[in-house]
Amino acid sequence: MFMVYKISGFNNENNAMTTTILLFLAGLIILIVGADLLVRGASRIAAAFGVSPLVIGLTIVAIGTASPEIAVSLQAAASGQGDLTLGNVLGSNIFNILFILGVTSIVAPIVIAEQLIRKDAPIMLGISLLTFALAFDGNLGWLDGAILLLGLVVYMVFALRQSKRESKAVQKEFAQEFAPKEPRTTRNLVINVVFLIAGLGLLVLGSNWLVESATQIAKALGVSELMIGLTIVAVGTSLPEVATSVIAALKKESDIAVGNAVGSNIFNLLGVLGIGAVVAPDGIAVASRVLQFDLPVMVFVALVTLPVFYIDNRISRLEGGLLLSYYFVYLMYIILRTAESSVLAGARLFMLFFVPVTFLALAVIAYRSMRAKRAGVG
Question: Which domains does the chain have, with CATH numbers?
Fold first, then answer.
């Protein structure tokens, strides 16, 4: 009888975990569908009322592709699950640059616009350092969140002003992607409003399911919500950016591919984390291990874009492979750290050798590329 009870209990636990995983996947699918409907409805409404394709791409689409992160972070922060919010933002930013740009440049080498090298990438690095500084006291409170949100307003104004100075080639690229593709009629307007409302509703529902199931998975596996946020939640909520960047790269629309990843990172820190810090009842607690490792990794990821972008104004397949290798090294390390593995010390030594050596090599190549450009100009 005891054996029957044990088997029954085991089956119940298995069924509960299966249900939780299905709920997580359903929440993820609903989030992605909701984000797509939101972007489709909002961008078409904006285009119908004469908003330029470049502005649509820089604002509506950028916010729309980040909407899964916003929805999940709001849900988690309001529920007092700050670790999930923080893990989602940091994990997404690391994933966006290392994985998405890595995969995208392997699919097709990416040409980097001059603005990304001179302005957007340094801005991303500066905002990453600002976030690190605000989190250094171990808590991101409402005032920190307000500072980040103010930074978002300033950045959006800057981006919109800068868009007016873009080259005709870049404006044409955005026009092909986001220009109105349907006549302005009452019927189309109503359909797009329905898309917009349905997208928002699905984002709320999907984020609720995702946060609830992610919490249960963390408890069942005996790992922290931070770990779940850094990995499966971050990867899941970044899937719209993966699709957008890969499709853009295949279409040779490199400005959209890279701008999407860099813009999403800036918006994640200023908008998603800013909103989360304001909404969270007691702010978002920042654990010491995050201050010692995950936040510095996020800053390093922003820093590594500078030499990678500068070398020949493109991301080659080799450089894309290097970015991907950085992501897998990071992923391996946090998994071993969570499992308290006996090989963690060896993995740390490998990482401390591999990352600085390859980054130094990138910096040297970028410096030589800069000198060659100046010599060519001279």
Answer: 2-377 (1.20.1420.30)
